[in-house]
Amino acid sequence: MTHSPLTYRSNNTFKIAQFTDIHIGYPNGEADLKTLADFETCLAHLDVDLIVITGDLVWAYGGLNPLLAFKQLIKRLNKVDIPVAITYGNHDSEYKITRSDLRQLETTLTHSVTKENSSLCQDRENYTLSIYDKVGDKILHQLFLIDSGNEAPKEVGGYAYLFPEQINWFKQKELATKHSLLNLIFMHIPLVEYQYVKEKITSGGQLEAICCPKINTGLFSSLVLSPHNYQVFCGHDHDNNFTASLNQVGLNYGLISGYNVYGVFNRGYREITLHHDQLTTRLVPYQKNPFS
């Protein structure tokens, strides 16, 4: 079942919960059981209009079972009546599983979003979501979910970069966002420009180096030159959870959501509240969730 349209609340706000780097891989392991328990408790009391998961939902290498792990997450997401949007990370399809396999499992979500402008580029899916006013007849925001891939070719090294075809897709779809004042981009791997904002951080912290691609294919320049305002939200770096701005483009991290990996921060999610031409955001750790 799909949810459409996504509309503002009666108080003229729209709330998003960004989860990232959940990393379920050992369904009977102590760390995964803790992740699943805290995730389920959080979902049961979550007061948002959309859940966005920005990659590394599962481990997918070695002797692990990523399909079983993904099913464990879907089982819990299906217990709540909140639409869910997903984009994938570098670990989701590392070993004996493809992004196509994972997207097929997405069809078992009870409350999946209606993907707009969906486009595949070498098995990376990019799509948009529209956020409407409370009446449902005017688009206030466009959300771009862009699959940032996993690894770059060996001759380049490092993490994947966005393909030029993905940048062209964004430019074409961005032209159609005539009336929105503020648009959001969700992806897993941070843009190269995240390296340049250490002195511009307004909240959260940077405790590790920015793990971005070695090649810059130009998405950020498109955002700077756009007539719209943009905020980018990523995951990937477990010990970074900051918000910052560069050339009036917001560059933000989520909050690591799983215990099965490194990271000193309390696990949880980032809450994003949209207010027409601006947003507010905060980190909500599981153990400090006011509803738990």
Automatic annotation (TrEMBL):
* Listed name of the protein: Calcineurin-like phosphoesterase domain-containing protein
A single Gene Ontology CC annotation of this entry is: cytoplasm
Q: Which GO terms describe its molecular function?
A: hydrolase activity, acting on ester bonds
Task: Outline the extent of the Calcineurin-like phosphoesterase domain.
Answer: 14-239
InterPro entries reported in the protein's UniProt record? Calcineurin-like_PHP (IPR004843), Metallo-depent_PP-like (IPR029052)
